[in-house]
Amino acid sequence: MRRFLLARLARAVPAAWGIISIIFLLSRSLSATQTVSEELQSSIAGHTATPKQIRTTERLIRRRLGLDLPLFYVTPAAQSTSGALAWRWQWQGFQNQYHRWLLGVLRGDLGYSFRDGRPVTTQLRLALGATLPLTAAAFLVTSVLARWLTLFLANHRGLRTALLSALHVLHALPLFVIALLLLLLLANPDALSWFPAYGLADFGDNTSWSIQVLQYLHHLALPLFSLVLVSLPSLVVQLDYALARELQADYVVTARAKGLPQRLVVRHHALRNALLPAITYLTDLLPALVAGAVVVELIFALPGMGRLLAEAAAARDFPILLGAVLLIAGTRLGAQILADWLYYQADPRIRLEV
Amino acid sequence: MKQLSRYVSLVWLLVLLLLSVCAEILPLPYAPDTPDLDAIAAAPFSGAHWLGTDSAGRDVLAGLIFGARTALLISLPATIVSALLGTFLGSIAGYWGNQRLRLSAVVMVTLGLLGLAVAVLNASLGVYLSIGAVAFGGLVVVRRISGKLSTTHPVPLDAAVLLLIALLTAIPRLVLVLALAAVQPPSAPMLLITLALIYWPSTAQLARAEMQRIRQLPYMEAARALGLRDWQLILRHALPAVWKVVGAALPLSVATLIGLETTLSFLGVGLPPQTASWGRTLASARQEPTAWWLIVMPGTVLVCTMLALRQLALTSIKKEKRGE
Q1: Dist CA A151 CA B175 (whole Å)
Q2: Per the CB < 8 Å rule, is B307 touching A168?
Q3: A304 Cβ contact partners less than 8 Å away, ≥ 6 residues apart
Q4: Which of A31, A47, A242, B32 could form a disulfide bond with A274, CB atoms 3.0-4.6 angstroms apart?
Q5: Distance from CA of B283 to the nearest CA of A (A)
Q6: For the segment A255-286, what is each residue's pLDDT rounded down to a tens digit?
Q7: Where is A84: in which H helix or E strand?
């Protein structure tokens, strides 16, 4: 068992490192000039500057953003020899952007935001604090509700067609339409104003903690509903399909033949096998827990991870983007290993193969 | 019943296609982008605007028709490009795997140097073409000479394609689009290319799995035993089967891409603000919370389109399964 996990880690960690390195180098090399020139324009806007002043400002900006060092250990340098351009690889030593960034990552320091100079780790932590309760709750509610709905569908044949068609229609709606519908139906002073339309609760000092928790839940309800409604249909449809296939298997006939009631056959025999494919589906959702839900967070104005990422992407704030991508890629690798481990635990046939 | 729903969805999609093709010549009373300042957020079925206007006084009916055009113009080409790219990369990865494509070291070094030159040099197209011609000539010569001299090494094609997929999927799709949209000014061709580049991995995974399956089948072995070349095997014997699977999933790709396009327009990224889109009409519902028609009309059109596309995909996938 431990060997299995170690082998998976030994394969996964270099892959993650490679991916993150490539993203770092690509984003830095493609965007550095543009970022610096934008900063330069905003800092000399409205002033008349001599070329020398401009050069000095640019150097200062590059130093402040950490873009003054060479990008990698070796960089190509242009040399004009006898009129023609020739390229030569130049060894830059350890004083380069990549080396510094990597050391920082190993120490748990992801650098500083280009936009406001705050440390990336603090911003990511704050955003995660707002996002994780929402996405984790959505994840839990979805999986519990999906299991319940699948059982309900299996036990109530008469409602099947109606419920499945409703799920298909729901599945066809993009997330933003669902969120918008909920917002305009349930948080609209002109319709029903049951829920607050945006933001998280702002607590006064003298409110007791129980009221604070209630307010918090009240604010999270609509985003939670929309996330659950958008991920529930595909999960239920998939589970239902798997369950229907399992119910045709021979062991189900045996179970019925020995006199078990249908309810127990479904619950104890078929459902367990039908849940196997759902492992992949659920572990695939795990990275989204960390990545947040961009659309929902933008519509309901929640200060979460998705919004942080969207704003950083729009402002080309690469330290934040890289930090978040590092986090998401790490979670994805963890989720894949978790999925393998769960399969390993759940299905004896796989255990024999390893 | 199944046949009926298939016909209904086909008819709906055809009507949508027709409307969007002749959007320019239709006798619409209003243009999609000229605000009618006398009728701001006018209710539908009452005045001159049949389906009402939004918070800026833009006609909803014209917005829907031109929005359909935008959705189809973006999603159909993006689907085709991403399907072609994904099928190509996925099937070469599935066919050759990590071990089976063997090139001699000389060829690999030449190709690597060529790639490096393209990456490092910022030269014009002519220089690239001449480098490519020289490299190709060299390749042919080297192949003739080195047939017996040099040993061959396996090219990890499968690992390379998987790495590329992992790179693209490491970042959430929407964030990647936002980041790319921030670098380029918003325009329809840019959005199309971005979506195609982002969406190909799912097709590639499909094509890769199918190619891995097909490559083991007896008929492929027989064809190989007949002495057919690799490209003949891939093009004539494997790709038609791969394309069936990829083609069955095409309507789903179109649906996903329409969803992405409307989401982006709703958020106000990717397309310039004067381009009509269902997402833009839906976004205007936020400024006018009482205007139910701003969410019901585009929402209904969107849901019908998505359902029709899903229905098509469902029937074609079922047909595919029955065929086996």
Answers
A1: 36
A2: yes
A3: A127, A130, A131, A134, A292, A293, A297
A4: A242
A5: 9
A6: 989 998 888 888 888 888 888 888 888 888 88
A7: strand A84-91
Q: Which of B174, B290, B306 sits opposite A294 (nearest CB)?
A: B174
Model-level pTM? 0.82
- Count Cβ atoms below 10 Å from residue A117 Cβ, excluding itself: 9
Q: Do A291 and B170 touch (CB under 8 A)?
A: no
Q: Hey, which residues does B104 pair with through a beta bridge?
A: B152
User: Highest mean pLDDT range out of A178-192, A319-333, B202-216?
Assistant: B202-216
Query: pLDDT tens for residues A74-109?
Result: 766 655 555 555 556 667 677 778 888 888 888 888
Q: Are B141 and B113 in contact (CB under 8 A)?
A: no
What is the phi/psi pair of residue A249, to 5°?
Answer: -75, 165
Cα A116-A119-A125 angle, rounded to 5 deg? 115
Classify residue A266 by its DSSP letter: I
CA separation (Å) from B19 to A161, A195, B68? 33, 40, 8
Q: Give residue B146's pLDDT.
A: 56
Element (H, E) at B72: helix B60-96
Per CATH, which fold does B2-94+187-322 belong to?
Answer: MetI-like fold (1.10.3720)
Question: What are the b/e assignments for B290-320, b being 16+ CB within 10 Å?
Answer: ebbbbbebbbebbbbbbbbbbbbbbbbeeee
What is the phi/psi pair of residue B34, to 5°?
Answer: -90, 115
Average pLDDT over residues B93-105: 81
Do B295 and A328 count as a contact with CB atoms less than 8 A apart? no
What pLDDT shows up at residue A78?
57
CB A135 within 8 A of CB A293: yes
**Length of chain A counted residue by residue:** 354
